[in-house]
Amino acid sequence: MYPDLEFVFRPETQAIFDQFCALLGIRIAFYSPSGEELRVGQGRAMCAYCGLLRRELGLEGRCRALDAASREKAARSGSLTEYSCHGGMVEAMMPVCVSGRLLGFAMIGQFRQREKPPARLLAQADAKLRQRLERAYLRVPRFDPSKKRLAVGLFETLIRHIAESRLIDRRDRIAAILDRLRDKPGRRLPLRQAAALAGCSASQFSRLFRKAAGQSYERTRIALLLERADALLRVKPPLRIQEIAFQLGFEDPLYFSRIYRKHRGVSPKRAGRE
């Protein structure tokens, strides 16, 4: 449900992805081991040509299958895998490993070496779609063999640097849940849902959480909530109770007031005046 809870992305990671895209005009992205896209340089979408292949020629399934096969091959070899897709685009997939653990995959792609799309694909389209495919294809960056080697080599070097510098890493699941609670302690996250996010049973999660936090999940959640609420109540000029409840993640300010009164013995409004 929240795959990015599993990963830590240092700011430098996104900067590297953005700069790579800006320099070469092609796409670089990080995928989870299951193939879910989590980070993209410059937020760049797939090229218009690939979009046409997927939508108009019905090649979505074939494209996904090729990506999955490339991830599997890269994981088996432990090294960069370069390939040309059925649309004539050159792409490269590289596993991202830290301390022997596969964190996911980095991918660059959607550049060309040919002047025209593959004839077998154009034969599947009517005249109007052929024109659209050819125009979109020509807008994709074209690299000659020497520039392709430089681009792929730079990509490989950058991904090795990212892995060796741990600019991407897998998070401790309990720490991820704690960070979520600190961010919005009033947002509903029952123990069973927190356990599911952490990938373990409720009993196992409770045991691990108590070991990490020194107290139960519910006590920790309430303690973080009250601590954050008290800090917001001390803000000058004073915030309205509705604003405090919103910042804490509550949808209902009255519910926040009831929780606060239950544990502090006074209403948040009165506590803010003392």
Describe the structure in your own words.
There is one protein chain. The chain is α+β, with helices and mostly antiparallel strands and 274 residues long. The chain folds into 2 domains: 3-170, Beta-Lactamase (2-Layer Sandwich); 173-273, Orthogonal Bundle (Arc Repressor Mutant, subunit A), CATH 1.10.10.60. It is 55% helix and 15% strand. The chain has 13 helices and 7 strands. It has helices at 11-24, 48-56, 60-77, 119-122, 127-139, 145-164, 173-183, 191-198, 202-213, 217-233, 241-248, 253-264, 268-273; strands at 7-9, 27-31, 37-40, 81-84, 89-98, 101-112, 168-170. The strands form 2 sheets. The chain has a 5-stranded antiparallel β-sheet, with helices on both faces.
A few lines on this structure:
The protein is an alpha+beta fold and 274 residues long. The chain has 2 domains: 3-170, Beta-Lactamase (2-Layer Sandwich), CATH 3.30.450; 173-273, Homeodomain-like (Arc Repressor Mutant, subunit A, Orthogonal Bundle).
